[in-house]
Fold these 2 entries.
Entry 1:
Amino acid sequence: MEANLSEQAKDSTVRRSKRKKGRGQPWILHFMVLPAAVMVFIFSYIPMSGIVMAFQDYKPALGFAESPWVGLKHFQYMWENDYFLKITGNTLFFACTKIIMNLIVPFVFALLLNEVRKMALKRSIQTLVYLPHFLSWVTLSGILIDMLAQTGLINQFIVYLLGTKPIFFLGDGNWFRFTVIVSDVWKEFGFNTIIFLAALSGINPALYEAAEVDGATRWKQTLHITMPSLVPITIVIATLALGNVLNANFDQIFNLYSPLIYQQGDIIDTFVYREGLLSGQFSFATAVNLFKSVISLILIAVSYRLAYRFAGYRIF
Amino acid sequence: MYHKTLSYRIFSICNNIFLTVISIACLLPLLHLLMVSLSSTAPANAGLVTFWPIGFTFEAYAKTFDNANFLASLWVSVERTVLGTALALVVNTTAAYALSKETHVFRARNVYLWYFVVTMLFSGGLIPGYILVLKLGLMNTLWALILPGLVAVFNIILLLNFFRGVPKDLEEAAFIDGAGHLRTFFSIYLPLSLPVIATVSLFMMVGHWNSYFDGIIYIRDTEKLPLASFMQTIIVQADMSKLDPEAVANLSQRTIRASQIFISALPILLVYPFLQRYFVTGIVVGAVKE
């Protein structure tokens, strides 16, 4: 009987230690990654192989195997095409202006918000300014088209206050650019302050106390403590933004533009959509897109390298 | 103390007023839209409505909810949001759990991680993706709106960073009690990670609700269009070819357009308070990781 019991106890410790070893078994972990890995393979890696069509004259009826190879024909056509240079310029203009504005405005806004001492007021302001970020460009452009129309709210104010003619915001190239930049800043500046506010809350209060003792005014404190503390995170954001200089925000442009202002408002992504899906130039559109992806990839690689070098930033 | 000086007090008052004005400016366009939708047709078309309804009426909303096209689209959006978020949660959290393990526990971890991250950096682009959906026979189905974006690598990284912060002792204890990985995941990691899971699922829901482009390129039948795509077609592109004549007549009314835009934005406004509570943590975890 006693022997039996001790046998059982021994048995269970053996089993337990086996289990303990068993937890290192990775098969169940493989099983857990599997669904995501399969989906990524189908919907990300297979389309990547579809890039070969940029070097073909792809015909849906012939498929990838049968379509004739044309080498760099589409890329050559792209480079000789004045319109392509124009939209690349537009893309760079929109993306760079937005990057700069979306750094400066949130930076200043975070500094001002930091001076609000009434917590209730501060929280209400935050709630309101974060909101536009979550509305889609479809909704916003529906509102903007209505408000910026010739008889819309904004033009009514302009006519009433300035006595000028109504402005053709979405129909004139320069005003279109202006509208795109301002509406983008309006939508995103609040959300972009979050990261600065997080950095502000990390500043050691002892620094301010010491400055106070030395008789520094609040402005001096802002200049010599607050602003320098925000420099590292600003550098990280600016560097990482480098990967986005060819992303002018398809959703926004697509929902606001019209053939009237293609010369100043068309960007690479909208061009790819029109050429590829509306005109059926599958190969040419893919070539344009591939060009953009490759440049972006290089820029992302460089920007992460730089962000790591200068600020020790890593994503994981 | 600096905040007792006169100049700082003056600054503080001006600053508070300035910031209040700015934050109200973020709300005004939505408010104007709501007021137009609640006004009667004539003053709205004449552009008399600013920030208060003129001839208050719910007529525009009544007509909107009478519109079969609009209701069908509303339902498609609900379907894709619920189904898409649920599926994505299952797939992304399980993957994130496995990838949150150290290399000595899960040797293939780094390989998988790079396998996922590569797709964040480079993609085949619009046309190959479109051809794939076509070849898979997903065209004009709900699955075309759900499957291509099911795995969101950014969300996986957010989740795995959070999972890594769960104390190792809890996991050890579970293993000693004989739990396997699946059991540990469901009984320990998931309950402890509710805040980040709430953040991620709210992001997914908002993403699904707002997503319009996939509907435009993959869906052909008007009654299968999700709401965002429906709105994009009729309001932004002003393409009425897909609608019945009665609906077209209705849409020429500014109040009805406004009511439709407002209803499509309403779910976002409703989840927003919850979203706001969680996303700050989420963003900070994802962005300023030490």
Note: Chain B has 16 helices and no strands.
Entry 2:
Amino acid sequence: MSQQPQPHPEAANPAATGGPAPATAQTAAQSTTQATALHPAAPQPGHARPVLEIAGLTAHIAGQQVVEDVSFSVPATGITALLGRNGVGKTSTIKAVIGLISRTGSVTLDGERIDKEPTFKIIRRGVGYVPEDREVFSKLTVAENLRLAERDASPRRQLVEELFPDLLKRASQMAGTLSGGQQQMVSLARALLNENKLLLIDEPTKGLAPKIVQEVAETLERAAETVPILLVEQNLQVVRQLAAGAVVLSGGKVVHTTDSALGFLDNEDLTQRLLGVHADAGHGEEADRNGAQK
Amino acid sequence: MSTIVLLTVTGLGLGALYFLVASGLSLIYGLMGVLNFAHGSFLTLGAFAGWEFARRAGADNWWTFLGSLLVGAVVGALFAAFTEFVLIRRLYERHIEQVLVTVGLSLASVALFDGIWGTDTIHISGPAWFRETTGILGAQIANDRFVAIIAAVIVLLGLVFFLKRTRYGMIIRAGVESRSMVTALGIDVRKAFTLVFAIGGAAAGLGGVLASHYFQYVSPLLGGSLLIFAFIVTVIGGLGSLTGAAIASVVVALLQQFANFYLNGTGDFVVVVALALVLLFRPSGLLGRKS
């Protein structure tokens, strides 16, 4: 057994350790001053300001504390994985960021505080949200689901049609009659229709067949070329394939952050203890067995 | 045969009134989870407003009648939107408080209507044609029944069109499934809340004017007496389902009429039995979502 993992000294800012985020000189200069005010560990020049900074986030559901004093940030590019055993507060953290559950603490999106704003305003600032279990509107058609999500004056319908040609064929079908994989495509498409600053994607491969998992992973990879993503994902293969950094929660707190998901996941002991899965595990079957049900 | 026809058409007329109240109740509950006990007050105020307009406009002609329908609907909509904006909006997700505040509002408004218009029932009359009858298969049926049925069908078609074809209708249908996901798409669902209250209030106000012609009176208790059955209709039809409310309105009203005639005035009892059976064997209602 190795020692108990401690919160990373720069937990509030994984990008500060030399993360994958390349940046323009201009945004780096802006971000340095901004972030210095917020965190002692400010990004070095040459790194973009994190798109999302969370400090001291605490959240409750029905009086029960589900997230406790969580602090981390999400770099302005690439995919950051949010990891941890089932029931540890990953979904709650994401919901707290967009105000779907009551929260305290500071949440900053692209340099602006959003922790006092209602959900719809946060989303309109440029956040795409793909919830756990997809949450498509089952009694609306596929086309209606997509139309409802269009915020921009010129939504990127062409991109969505290109990424999900299947949805075009099923435009008039009730979303509730789609397969799990197709519903996930609808849910992803709703987020990708708009120009976003950040995507929050919660377990997009959960319960999907391996072939569909790969399709979803490819879609995320492509999306990440233009927008940073905070990804909750149990499938470590997908995490390895996609993530440039990771934040690990345990007991509602951040216990580990890294700018290199791969290195972290190769540590058998850490993955076993923090995620409840073996380093070479597929889709977190053991986590399902070991972890608390959400 | 003529009795059956008479009971059926009279039942459909009553069902039309139930639907006008229940449609709003059902949409409001479906979207916002609010059990609106003040809905009867929207109906009563609409009825009084329509009557005030009709008696000032003078002759009981068709234009006066149509005008009173419009006035009733507008007043009902404004009262409902005001209720949502001032009282309900502060209490989202606090269901006990919502019930208390709507029950309180309904009691207070009945007292207010008592104060303004008195506790006695006020007899009203519409266009002379209303009191005439039309013969269908040997049955002589009062004409105002047809007006109520036609109005309810128009309201139903209008609501279906609104829900299916407009963006706000789409937001409301989506919100009935998952309110939080609608806000998580960047939509200010509160506007839809106010709108649903206004639409429900308009239907109730319209129903108030039609009910006052159906029963030939207005009184501060008019709304409350219809509200009880509208609630039963809403539960049987399935909370949140407009089609369910339409079907259940007709079923409940016909059951009531036929039981009253053939089973010695046990109509109300039979309706309550039907409600109990639905709650036992199909708790989500005829067309309600599974919870």
Note: The CA atoms of residues 19 and 105 of chain A lie 25 Å apart.
